[in-house]
């Protein structure tokens, strides 16, 4: 089965969906409301499940070249610098760290020329069972399939499901930044191979990324959403002034304009990710907190599974349900349980790692865990999320 699709959203999930469609022989138009296509944000890590999805999309080698191994899961520290668990030099690590823009570029370069249209804000959707029509600022088109990959505040989701509750604030906020660490004292500083420092009420994450840079994030509790500061970098530095190096130095090395302050939200579970010929994908379907590092990874999985379902579905030539709708039902049945379970787990992890009341018990548990057992748990096959294997996509 081949056809034409419209993808809404030019982030990692939308580009992955477009690339999956290209690999199975579909044609597509990708609509992005921003005037220029780019990825907003700082850094992230991708686990083995996401790297397998990238490989199935045909960009695994390019992604690995753009990423840097990170030992954050193996290096757990306290604010005074002591290690709760420590990675051994030379140990394999399951995680690869990226600047979001680098992974975005890898996907964008693989999408066929002419598929992306910027400055296109979707204003209407009409699904008449035989086709779906999308209107946007400056245009209208019909297609066999519409994929809503337009993020946590998805326009496609709102137009399809106006009664779905808005994103839910999780009582936590985060400062993110990119520091240049290619020279000077940072070259030998502890923690730049990747680490997580756990403090009462929050944690500080470090990932090395390409071109001599490091991504950092400080996640902590917040009484309400929307609180901002005149100088976000200074506020992050104030809160972490007493924490071990290189944390204060990383913040100091980050340009003021490169510090991002976000509130952490997720979505209540949706009853379905599909409506007729429309599928929701990525954050539009299952936005989750960053505490398991799976937001983008689950979007990549979504794209591969959706592409495989469309490629495999032979349909009913006798005039029954359309092949697209059958494929989308398969996509929903496979993806909704996994992604919603991952979102629940991320929410629970976030509560544990930022709860002042639970801090001492969590630290004691990690400290008492034998190092071999800890390493087994963070190995590439150490948990069910990371063990996911993608379905096969045919070569274009």
TrEMBL record:
Keyword NADP in record: no
Residue ranges annotated for the FAD-binding domain, each copy included: 5-344
Region: Disordered, residue numbers: 312-352
Compositionally skewed regions (Basic and acidic residues) per UniProt: 327-337
Signal peptide, first to last residue: none
Keywords tagged on the record: FAD, Flavoprotein, Monooxygenase, Oxidoreductase
Cofactors: FAD
Gene Ontology MF terms in the entry: FAD binding; monooxygenase activity
Protein name as it appears in the record: 2-polyprenyl-6-methoxyphenol hydroxylase
Organism phylogeny: Bacteria, Bacillati, Actinomycetota, Actinomycetes, Streptosporangiales
């Amino acid at each position: 089965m081949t056809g034409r699709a419209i993808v809404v959203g030019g982030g990692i999930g939308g580009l992955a969906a477009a690339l999956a469609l290209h690999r199975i022989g579909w044609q597509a138009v990708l609509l992005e409301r921003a005037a220029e296509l780019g990825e907003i944000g700082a850094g992230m890590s991708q686990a083995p499940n996401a790297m397998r999805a990238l490989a199935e999309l045909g960009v695994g080698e390019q992604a690995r070249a753009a990423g840097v191994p990170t030992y954050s899961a193996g290096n757990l520290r306290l604010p005074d610098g002591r290690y709760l668990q420590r990675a051994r030099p030379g140990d394999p690590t399951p995680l690869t760290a990226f600047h979001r823009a680098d992974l975005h570029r890898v996907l964008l370069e693989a999408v066929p020329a002419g598929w992306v249209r910027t400055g296109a804000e979707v204003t209407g959707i009409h699904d008449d069972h035989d086709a779906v029509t999308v209107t946007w600022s400056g245009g209208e088109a019909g297609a066999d399939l519409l994929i809503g990959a337009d993020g946590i505040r998805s326009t496609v989701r709102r137009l399809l499901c106006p009664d779905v509750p808005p994103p839910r604030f999780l009582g936590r906020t985060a400062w993110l930044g990119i520091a240049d660490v290619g020279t000077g004292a940072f070259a030998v500083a502890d923690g730049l191979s990747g680490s997580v420092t756990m403090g009462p009420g929050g944690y500080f994450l470090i990932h090395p990324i390409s071109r001599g840079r490091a991504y950092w994030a400080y996640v902590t509790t917040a009484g309400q959403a929307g609180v901002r500061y005149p100088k976000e970098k200074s506020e992050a530095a104030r809160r972490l002034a007493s924490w071990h190096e290189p944390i204060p130095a990383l913040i100091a090395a980050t340009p003021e304009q490169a510090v991002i302050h976000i509130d952490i939200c997720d979505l209540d579970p949706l009853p379905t990710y599909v409506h007729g010929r429309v599928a929701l994908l990525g954050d539009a379907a299952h936005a989750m907190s960053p505490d398991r590092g799976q937001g983008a990874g689950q979007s990549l999985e979504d794209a591969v599974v959706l592409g495989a379902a469309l490629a495999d579905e032979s349909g009913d030539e006798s005039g029954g349900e359309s092949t697209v709708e059958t494929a989308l039902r398969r996509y929903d049945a496979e993806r909704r349980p996994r992604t919603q379970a991952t979102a629940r787990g991320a929410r629970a992890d976030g509560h544990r790692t930022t709860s002042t009341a639970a801090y001492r018990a969590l630290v004691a548990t990690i400290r008492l865990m034998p190092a071999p057992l800890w390493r087994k748990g963070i190995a590439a096959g150490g948990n069910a999320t990371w063990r996911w294997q993608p379905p096969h996509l045919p070569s274009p």
